[in-house]
Amino acid sequence: MLIKIDNITKDYIDDGLVTPALRGVSFEIDKGEFLAVMGSSGSGKSTLMHIIGFLDKLTSGKYIFDDQDASNFDDDQLAEIRNQKIGFIFQSYNLLARTSVLDNVLLPTIYTPNLNKKKTEKKALDLLNKVGLSERIGHNPNQLSGGEQQRVAIVRALINKPRLILADEPTGNLDSKSGQEVMEILQDLNEDGHTILMVTHEKYVAECARRIMVLRDGKIISDEKVGNQHLAKNGLKK
Amino acid sequence: MYLFETIKLSLKNLLLKKSRSFLTMLGIIIGVAAVISIMSVGASAQDLLLAQVRAMGSNLIGVLPGASDEAGPPAAMFGIEITTLKHEDALALEKLPHIVAVCSYLNGRGSISYLNKSKDYNYMGVSEGYIIVEETTVDSGRFFRQDEIDSLARVVVLGSEVKKELFGDDNPIDKRVKINQVSFKVIGVMEERGVVAFQNQDEQVFVPIKTSQKLLLGVNHLAFIRAKIDKEENIESAISRVKSTIRFRHNIKDPIKDDFSIRSTDQALDMLGTITQALKMFLAAVAAISLIVGGIGIMNIMFVSVNERTREIGLRKAIGAKRKNILFQFLIESATMTLMGGLIGIITGILIAWAITIGVNYFGYDWKFIVTPVSVLISTMMAIIIGLIFGLWPASRASKLNAIKALRYE
User: Fold this and answer.
1) Model pLDDT, residue B75
2) Which domain covers residue A165, as residue numbers?
3) Contact assessment for residue A157 and residue A88, using Cβ atoms and an 8 Å cutoff
4) What is the CATH number of the domain that holds A42?
5) Minimal CA separation from B346 to chain A, in Å
C-alpha cells in the first residue's frame, strides 16, 4: 500500500466563512495503481490532489504516505517529499520560458541534495529519448508543440524517480492526437510499475486508468475498478 | 550545485531583460561612482592641504595673540585684531633653550610702485629669523639684519614674482620702490617658493618688522610669532617654556587668563587632518544617499519581477523548492544586480577621479590621484548589502507565496 487516506476533511476559511471542500474521504492506493479521480468543478478533486501531492495541508483525518504519517509534516518536510517522492504533471505544462528542454527537466534536481550531476543528466537524456524528444533538448518551450511540452513536463516529473505521479488534467490543453500520445506514455509508465493519480473531468480520459473514483461535494460517490481498461494506443474514444 | 545554479540563474534573468536591468542598476552605478569619486577627491584635497602646511617648515610652533581652548582655533584666526603680542616677546623667546630661531610677523596690503609701474601686493613685516624659520633663502642680494630692524631701516626684500612684474629682467638691488608712498631700498630678492599655506609667497614683499609697525601700519603689536625648535622631541618642553616666558612678560599669574595661544605645526596638521577627514566623510555620506535611492529602485523592480514570475515560483515550490530556496534565489538576484552596478560604478568613479586629477594638475596644483582600496572595498560591500536589504522584502514576499495560488496566477 502506498497511500492510506483516513477520513480526511479540508475546510477553506475566507473572511471567517468556512467552506468545506472535503467532508470525510477515506480510500487507499496500492503501489502500481492507475487511479483517475473525476468530478465536476467544486467537487473537491483538485483539493484532494493538492493534499495527496503535499501542496496543501488537511484540516482533519489521517494521511499515510509510503508508511509515513504525513498529517503533521512541516513546510520544509513537505517540500522535500514533493521534490523526491512526487512527480507533478500540470494541465498547462508549467515549463520555464527561455529555458532549454534539458534544463526544464533538470529543474527539480537543483533542490535535491547529493545528486550526481552527470548521472542525473544522463538519466534526463535517456528519458527524453524515450518520449521522442532527444533531438530537442536544446530547444526552448516556445519552440515546441503543446504535446511536446507536456512530454517534457512528464520527463521532469520522472527525473527524481517519484513514488507517485500526480497528473492534473494532463490532456486538458491538448488536441486529441497529442492527448492520446500523453495517455499512452502514462499507460506505459503504469505498465512499468509507476503509481499514477490523475484528475480529469473527461470520462474517456478516465477510462484509460485502471480505477475510477468520482467525487461530489467533497465526498466519494463511487470508486470502482475499470473492468476493461481502454488502451490509449487504440485512440481515445470521445 | 545549488548556489552555483542560483547565481547562474540570476545572471540569466538579468541578461534576459538587459535594458531594464541596466536602468535599475543605474541608481547604484551613480551612487557608487559618486562615493568613489568624492572619497578620491577628498583624499587628494586632504593630501594637498596637508602638504601646504608641511611646506611651512618642520618643528615649528606658532604664538598667536588671544586666548583659545586647546582644541578650537584662536580668535586671531577669525580676523579679530588683538594687540597683546609684541616684538619684545619674540626677542625674549630667542634666548630659550631648544629654540633655533624666532620670527615676528605682521602683514598688510598696499600699493608698491617702481618708476611708473604700480601694483597692490601683500607686504609682510618680519624679523631676521624669517630665513631660518621658513627654511628659505634669498636668490640675490641679502635679507635684512637685526640692526636694520632696530633702526627702522627702509629696506625691502622682494618676492620673486614681484621682482619679475616690477623690474622684469633688470637687477633691482639698490633700486628704490615705494610702498604706500614711503620709499624703500631693495636689498634682496627671495627664491621662488610657490604657494605655501595657501599664500603665494612669491607675490609679497618683506620689510623689517619694526619698519612695518611704525612707518607703514602705525601699530605696536604683532600678528603672530613663529619659532623653530631644534628637534621634534623638544617641542613639548619648548612650548611650556614659551608659555611661562610670555606669561611672565605679560604678568599673567593664572594660566586661565592667558592672552595668547600656542600651536605647533603638528597640532595644525592634526586639526586640519581631522577637519578634512570629517568633510570627506560628510560628502561621502551625502553621496551614499543616492545609493539608498538606487536601492529603492532595485526593490521596486524586484517586486515587479516577483509578480511576473509568480507561476514560476509556484512551480518551483511544487517541485520541491523550500521557502529559503526561493528567498535565496531572489536575494542573490538583487545582490547580483547591485554588485554588477557597484562594479560599473567603481570603474566610473575611478575614471571621474582620474579626469579631475588631470584637470586640477592642469591648473598647476600638485593634486595626486588617490583611490584607496578601502573606498573600493566599502563601495562593493555597500552595493551588495543594499542589494540584500532592498531585495529582502520582495524576496520574502516571493518565498511566502502559496504554491497552489501561484500556479493558478494569470
Assistant:
1) 59
2) 28-47+75-232
3) yes
4) 3.40.50.300
5) 32
pLDDT tens-digit readout, A183-201: 999 999 999 999 999 999 8
For residues B262 and B61, the answer to whether their CB atoms sit within 8 Å is: yes
* Distance, CA of A128 to CA of A113 (rounded, Å): 23
B311 has pLDDT over 90: yes
Instruction: Tell me which chain A residues have a C-beta less than 8 angstroms from the C-beta of B407.
Output: 90, 94
Residue A2 located in a structural domain: no
Cβ-defined contact of B319 to A80 (cutoff 8 Å): no
Report the interhelical angle of B373-399 vs B18-54 (nearest 10°).
Answer: 150
Which pLDDT score, from 0 to 100, does residue A32 have?
95
A161-190 burial, b at 16+ Cβ within 10 Å, e below that, comes to ebbbbbbbbbbbbbeeebbbbbbbbbbebb
Give a yes or no: residue A34 inside a domain. yes
Q: What type of residue is B237?
A: S
Residue A68: inside a domain, yes or no?
A: no
Q: Which of B385, B294, B407, B264 is nearest to B331 (CA)?
A: B385
Q: What is the largest CA-CA distance in chain B?
A: 103
Type of residue at A143: Q
Q: Is the pLDDT of residue B77 over 80?
A: no
Instruction: Return the amino acid letter for B274.
Output: T
B11 contact A CB<8A: no
- Its ipTM equals 0.93
Which of B410, B333, B346, B344 minimizes the C-alpha distance to B374?
Answer: B346
Q: How many domains does chain A have?
A: 1
Per-residue pLDDT of B272-302, as tens digits, reads 888 888 888 888 888 888 888 888 989 999 9
Chain B hits for A124, Cβ within 8 Å: none
Extents of the domains making up chain B: 2-53+270-408, 83-258
Residue A84 within a domain: yes
Cβ pair A112:B320 closer than 8 A:
yes
